[in-house]
Amino acid sequence: MSKFPKGWYIIYTRVNQEKKLAAQLNERNIDCYLPTIKVLSQWRDRKKLMEKPLFPSYIFVYLQDIRSYYSGLELDSALYYLRSGKEVTQVSEEIVRNIRLSVESGNELEVLSGHFKRGETICVCEGPLAGISGEIVQYHGRDNIIIRVNLLNRNLLVTVTSGSAILKSSQSVQG
What we know:
The protein is an alpha+beta fold. It folds into two domains: 7-91, Alpha-Beta Plaits; 105-172, SH3 type barrels (Roll). 17% of the residues lie in helices and 44% in strands. It is built from three helices and 15 strands. Strand 12 and strand 13 form a beta hairpin. The longest helix is centred in the middle third of the chain and has 12 residues, at 93-104. Mean pLDDT is 78; it is low at 139-143 and 169-175. Keywords: Transcription, Transcription antitermination, Transcription regulation. This is Transcription antitermination factor NusG.
């Protein structure tokens, strides 16, 4: 029997069950990460700042062994682990760390499901996101850095000042 590769994986949850699943995983001593952002929700009579998942219906889990793999699936809020073909997709520590840095930086974040095909690659050279590379994109009249999280088929949009980034390559990225 082959050894289970411990590391970060992604569970797809039932709709609006991310926080419930995170609490249940913590009760079972399974390390998990649910990146959230604050979003201003507006009703007719009021506005409220709400915390919502950055990636709706996805939660990152750090699995130590096959037992924790099945323990996570036993929960009602969990539907399945994200797969690539027949293999369960493992997420690199670097991707989880970059998402944490982006969320904790306090920068404005927005997740887009579209794919960007053109733009120059830049590297953030200062601040809490130092070392992260991204693609320059024009969005609502502002320059933003796109950090690709392609295993989720999503792109993370992070706002940084132009003074905190340097051009990494003068070639355009063709997608």
